[in-house]
Amino acid sequence: MPYEATRYKEHHEVRLPLLSQLLDKGWNRDQIICPSPDSDDREWQVPRTPSDNSVRESGRRFAGFPVDMAIFDEPQHRGEWDHVIALVETKAPTHEEGVSQLETYLGLEPNAVLGIWSNGSSISLVYKQVDLHYKVIRDAVLPSPSDNILFAGDEPLTYGQLRNHEEISGKGLNHLFSELLDHIVAGDSKSTRADDRLDNMCDMLLLKMDSDTNGKMARNPDEAVLEFQILATPQETAKRINTCFEEYVDKYPFLFEDNTSKTIKFDDETIHAIVYRLQNINLKAAAPETLSAAFQVFRSANVKQGEGQYFTPQRIIEAAVKLTGVDYHDKVIDPACGTGGFLFESYNNLLSRATSEQKDEIRTWAHHNLYGVDLDSINVKLSRALMIGARDGSTNIVLGDSLREGKWPEFPKLAPVIGHEADGSYSVVLTNPPFGEKLKIRATDAKAAEYSICKHTSGGAASDKYADTELGLVFMERAYRLLTNGGRLGIVLPETYFFSTSYRWFRTWVDERFDLLAVMNVPMEAFQGFCRAKTNFYVMRKKPMGDKPALPLPSWAEPGRTWITYAPTIGINKDGKTLFKVTEDGIRTTEIDDKVLSDVEALVNGEKETETSRFVHTPDSLSLTFLGVPQYYDQTSVLEFERYVGTHFGNFSTRSLGDLVDDGIITVENGHGSPSADTRNGTIPYVKVSDLRAGMVNFNPTNMVPLSVAQRFWHGTDSGLSPWSIVTPSRASKNIGEPSMLLPGQEQAVFTKETLIMNTTDKADFDNFYLGWALDLDVVRRQWARVVFMQTNREDLGTRYREILIPIPDTREDGERVSLHYREYYSTIAQSRSDYLKARAAQNQ
């Protein structure tokens, strides 16, 4: 609450003089919360319990202890709980009581490391050390902002004291790395470029993991003193870290082939702060998610999404590796390996299934059979470090451009791994390549490498000329060249490639070279933190050609059939965090909700079909089907519809909208088009998909076009619409399939092409009211989810509306009987609307 002068007698005698001293020391008034008569500051509240802190994090009101002042790391973070660094108390009458109170508060405020107590005549400082003990200094001098307030513990940190980060903070590593990035950007005086910050932060992570590894491998890990911990001063900490880094570079020189320095290029205070925040956490136990999380946070800061680099969540990697079926006999490459997640999981999956006698053989296998390539030197460093942590395979990860052969001479180690001599030498290619419409290989580079997949026109027609082509597609041909006869390709690709008419040429190209063995749904949530592109994981087999023997199919595969899982969850929620199962009572459990992985495990264990997976016959032509779209094969909504109709409308038949159109019983047309924004200054409504809500067509007064513009889109003097037409979005809307009724008087409007306008004809035994009623049935509306695909990043229906089934009455009377309430509802609205408009017009005359 606002300051009340009578509440704090010590305000003028203690608090204001102390505030003045802090400002004299160099602290910024804008980074201090201190209630006073001339301030709107509210007292800073320290949560009373850890659960209160969780409530605070969610933005809700919580129970707290008020403190006299709170100091934040930067003025721009003033008032943010995760940036408070010091708490100030002037209330307690004695030093002992004041210190005790501050120790309590510092224990409850997770990011605060300093407590200041004053009674006006003396000052005591309380430092929260890294071991969570407290260092108390009586009769102290106030610190300045440049002074060190991060103190080591009374005893050296040992490996046995390391803990999982979530146990310490309740937050994931992503949150920690975000905090570190904020600190580096705001305070480091040496590293000013984003790439430099990423590179140096990676080096710090490698040192931390190496320190954890050394502690774990010590004779007595619980008592092994770690090198990665702060010392008494930032200068001492930085000196030790740089000594360790120099030794690390000498130990693993191939990680730093492009480095000319053996020094961490952060200033001493930044190094000290990073070590302080990381030293208690067991990063070694968290790998590989640790390095992937670091990649995600720092890559996001560097805007690498524009380069098509997307963090591949571990849950996708785990399911993908199991589905691809990597085993001891395989030679595996990831030509766009990023931070090495697929390579690590391939090795780790084999190791987890090996007996103690087999583990050494698996490590040897990794050294000779796991390969990776990436164009980013930091990715290569991280991938190699990840494999070092796994104890082998690191030397086979090389820097280079997998696609542009003209650049290969620039990368001396690339040729043996991915050059022409490597073609046909791999049994498995496993990758998540960069993809995006703007990420393309130039036609000149495509011609130099003779990529057949690049021989098409901009519209997708076959051509003898090379065209600029999306990188993700070209990786398909690179994989094809690297694979031996019968080799397997496991790849993450946008779903758009497998249904859009503009990519039909690509599906034809795939038909000629691969058999599609499996399609694994990747729910939208998995990549939602980076993009809205819908992707899937595809397992393909290079078609055997020539006399060379072909590798056998995976044990689970069936010739002429494709396995598909359309499971809706993969253990990741829309915020990128772990998705847990929830009971019918709404209670969250500790069991991860990952139906995709469950389906994959069931398949490899011999179970051919589950509630969310099954085999389907592979068509002769992939280009004419939706085989690459998992949700299309989920027949749950169709079966539910048929059961419902059979139970509730025994005398009704069922037909698809497409059949009704073909028989002339209904008409389905797209809207007129989209007038440009600068023409929206007239009197004729322009209706967008967002204007179709709650079963109504809602005119937006800000979207009105002149009659002349409307007539251009109508191709005549009127719209061609009639009252009681059924309108639904067909693109770029969550409400695709939801019917809206066009009321009398609304016919003169321009509708966007991204709508469908439906009407019955004279051949129908039912009218538009019945059609609207049928489309509005829940069992009908649920069918649309199966046929609405994600076109790049927008919902798209195409012509698949034709597959929607609706009940058909035996007689017009039956139809009018069941839809009577629908007719009365809209007729009443239409009459009320007409009465209102007439009354309004009369009042305005």
Automatic annotation (TrEMBL):
Positions of region (Disordered): 34-58
Alphabetized UniProt keyword annotations: Methyltransferase, Restriction system, Transferase
Recorded GO MF terms: DNA binding; N-methyltransferase activity
GO biological process: DNA restriction-modification system; methylation
Chain ranges of the DNA methylase adenine-specific domain: 302-543
Pfam families: N6_Mtase
Name of protein: N-6 DNA methylase
